[in-house]
Amino acid sequence: MDIEKIVDEVTRELQSLLRYSCKSGTSGIRPREVPSRLEHSMLNPDVNQETILAECANARRYSVAAVCVAPYYVSIAKEALRGSGVKVCAAVGFPHGCMSGLAKLVEVTDCIKNGADELDVAVNILAVKSGDLAEAKKDLEQIMSAACGKAAVKAVFEHSVYSDIEKKNVLEIAGACNVDYVKIQNALSGKGADVVDIQYVKGILGNNVKIKIDGGVKTMAKALELLNAGADRIGLTATVAIANEAEAIG
């Protein structure tokens, strides 16, 4: 074990936390507030029921904002989190959103019936790449209609696959459909969550739509950076580590 290396890493982390705290001032997000902005993601294909139950217990323990699961696990997560205040988010059409509009609509309806409070809905990437923006918008409009008053909708913005004009088009569609959140997703690119991506979305949509972002967030310093840049939620798997860090800092 390289003790000096560990000490250096911890020192850098604490210095980063101090910088963000000083930079944000009294109105910035504090470490103790971070867990309530986290969405604990359980979307890997090897996730089994035992894992879902264990991670829902962690989500309850730290009072995170939500868990994000595949539609198959919605009812199990809902029961495991009953009475906790932690939301159940279903990933609909993950990751490409390329099934038919009817298939996606059925998935949405089923997830809501099984207890989903929120929906991460993949915009139809193929429709956008084909220039069929009307179809992509119709798809999202139908989902908003089905979810209205029943579940919050986060339109997935898989930005790495789009050209500059396609990025703008997708965000404008999301804004026109009055989605609750735009989710800046990095699942297909492997790119890390970045402040500039939050700034880009806000530059087009302003503060009219909330923002969720994912992509390799592993530390409290990074979480604070993103939240203080304007993100409302962070999707991640390192939830417990960051929540423990928040408790330690106080």
Briefly, what is this?
The protein is of the alpha/beta class and about 250 residues long.
CATH architecture: Alpha-Beta Barrel
Helix content: 40-55%
For the sheet with most strands, the description reads: 8 strands, parallel, barrel
Order of helices and strands: HEHEHEHEHHEHEHEHEH
- Tell me the CATH topology: TIM Barrel
CATH superfamily descriptor: Aldolase class I
Instruction: Walk across the major sheet and give the strand order.
Output: 1-2-3-4-5-6-7-8
> What is the overall shape?
globular
- Which spans of ≥5 residues are poorly predicted at pLDDT below 50? 14-26
Number of domains: 1
Q: Any idea what the radius of gyration is?
A: 18 Å
Word description of this protein:
- The protein has 250 residues and is an alpha/beta fold.
- The chain has one domain (3-249): Alpha-Beta Barrel (TIM Barrel).
- Helices cover 48% and strands 16% of the residues.
- It contains ten helices and eight strands.
- The protein has helices at residues 3-24, 49-62, 74-80, 101-113, 125-129, 133-147, 164-176, 195-205, 220-228, 239-249, and strands spanning 38-42, 66-69, 87-92, 118-122, 152-157, 181-184, 210-214, 233-236.
- It has an eight-stranded parallel beta barrel, surrounded by seven helices.
- α7 (164-176) links the parallel β5 and β6 (181-184).
- α1 packs parallel to α9.
- The longest helix is centred in the N-terminal third of the chain and has 22 residues, at 3-24.
- 41% of the residues are buried.
- Mean pLDDT is 89; it is low at 14-26.
Fold topology:
Elements: H1 3-24, E1 38-42, H2 49-62, E2 66-69, H3 74-80, E3 87-92, H4 101-113, E4 118-122, H5 125-129, H6 133-147, E5 152-157, H7 164-176, E6 181-184, H8 195-205, E7 210-214, H9 220-228, E8 233-236, H10 239-249
Parallel strand pairs: 1-2, 1-8, 2-3, 3-4, 4-5, 5-6, 6-7, 7-8
